From TrEMBL:
Residues 3-389 form the Major facilitator superfamily (MFS) profile domain. InterPro entries: MFS (IPR011701), MFS_dom (IPR020846), MFS_trans_sf (IPR036259), Tet-R_TetA/multi-R_MdtG-like (IPR001958). Keywords: Membrane, Transmembrane, Transmembrane helix, Transport. It comes from Paenibacillus chungangensis. This is SLC45 family MFS transporter.
Length: 394
């Protein structure tokens, strides 16, 4: 379990970077772009890269053989580049330079996101992966809290400081991962198949009916989550009259509850089965999103976000181990990639579509649309049959 906490450093740095990006980049774009739909579209740049590159990179990492391992080379290239371009974002001189830095940072992130996530099942027995995912997402949640809470304070000092801090943290996390994690030594034997095993596990073979249904559910709950995350600061400022830092800080309540619920959600998924815990989270978050639509006070909003964060933990902690469990260990990187196809496709579609709804109605429609997405996720999930994990050699 010690190595699980160390692996969480990769997710910790990713979460800080994305939290700051989603909280403050819409505010930068709002200085140049008039329509919420356009801002929503520009906020999906990362997901276009994720949708097309991460399945390829995930499968490529399944086949990679180097002295650093099969996942670590992608971290060695992607993390320093992401740190550099992320630090440059607030130094834009106009819309063109802002979009250029956004594209370069997102391309760099796509190089190492799937391999970073795939390290956990590489080094964790199947029956412990849900619990381990809880630990890793706990680390990610701590990163989001630091980003939303500390970032909002640093942003008031100067808009560049939170991004610079995030870049420094990313480099420190990379150094620690390289020092403490030796992939070739620490990976489970069965997770290091020979080349013939990897070749037999074709990309097409991964698209089974249970996998497709689960991907449908993943698409719809990420459609809700990503739309809310990308447009929340604008919702807070334009609908509730909050300041920029109040809106960004409010997201810390959702992240705080996610952190609190991360490890318990993993333990519940192991004890009660992943599907049951995910369904409870989907139902609960549907109710919360619908309820937020009628809340008009800052206190009420933050209470709802606290409750919603717990339900999101039930969903998010168990979903990745769920989809990995539907395949073989020789295809962990590939299935990580197709997991990101669903989540990235949702993230591509959600902000612009929700932006169109906002332009047509007003910002009050945001959480009603999010509740509808969660309801559709529940319908898909009802038809997915969970498989018991096979025992893994010690």
């Amino acid at each position: 379990m010690k190595k699980t906490w160390l692996l969480g450093l990769g997710f910790f740095s990713i979460s800080i970077t994305w939290a700051l990006y989603n909280a403050f980049v819409p505010l930068f774009l709002d200085n140049f772009v008039a329509h919420a739909a356009t801002i929503g579209f520009l906020m999906t740049i990362d997901n276009y890269f994720a949708m097309f590159l991460q399945p390829i990179i995930g499968r490529r990492s399944d086949r990679m053989r180097t002295r650093f391992g099969k996942r670590m080379p992608f971290l060695l290239v992607g993390m320093p580049l992401a740190a550099l371009f992320g630090a440059l974002i607030p130094w834009h001189t106009g819309l063109l330079t802002l979009i250029t830095f956004m594209i370069l940072m997102n391309l760099s992130m796509s190089l190492y996101r799937s391999p970073t996530v795939a390290l956990m099942p590489d080094m964790t027995r199947p029956e412990r992966r849900t619990e381990a995912n809880g630990v890793i997402n706990f680390m990610g949640g701590v990163g989001s809290i630091l980003a939303f809470a500390g970032g909002s304070y640093l942003y008031k000092q100067h808009s560049s400081i939170p991004f610079l801090a995030s870049s420094i943290i990313t480099i420190i996390c990379l150094i620690m991962l390289l020092y403490f994690i030796k992939e070739r030594r620490d990976a489970l034997p069965l997770v290091q198949p020979d080349d013939s095993d990897v070749e037999k596990s074709s990309f097409k073979a991964e698209w089974t009916v249970p996998t497709m249904l689960l991907l449908g559910a993943i698409f719809f709950w990420f459609f809700s989550y990503q739309g809310v995350e990308a447009l929340f600061t604008l919702y807070g400022t334009k609908k509730l009259g909050l300041t920029d830092d109040q809106a960004a800080f409010s997201l810390a309540f959702f992240s705080l509850a996610f952190v609190i619920g991360a490890i318990p959600s993993g333990l519940l998924g192991k004890r009660l089965r992943k599907k049951r815990v995910i369904m409870a989270g989907v139902i609960g978050l549907t109710v919360i999103f619908a309820s937020i639509s009628i809340v008009d006070s800052l206190l009420g909003l933050r209470i709802m976000l606290l409750i919603g964060g717990v339900f999101w933990a039930c969903i998010n902690i168990n979903s990745y181990p769920f989809i990995v469990a539907l395949g073989k260990d020789s295809s962990i990187g590939t299935r990580t990639g197709i997991y990101y196809i669903a989540s990235s496709l949702a993230a591509v579609a959600s902000p612009p579509l929700m932006g169109v709804l906002i332009d047509f109605f007003d910002y009050g429609i945001l959480f009603y649309a999010a509740a509808a997405g969660m309801a559709l996720a529940l319908i898909c999930l009802l038809f997915v049959k969970e498989q018991q994990p096979l025992a893994h050699p010690q």
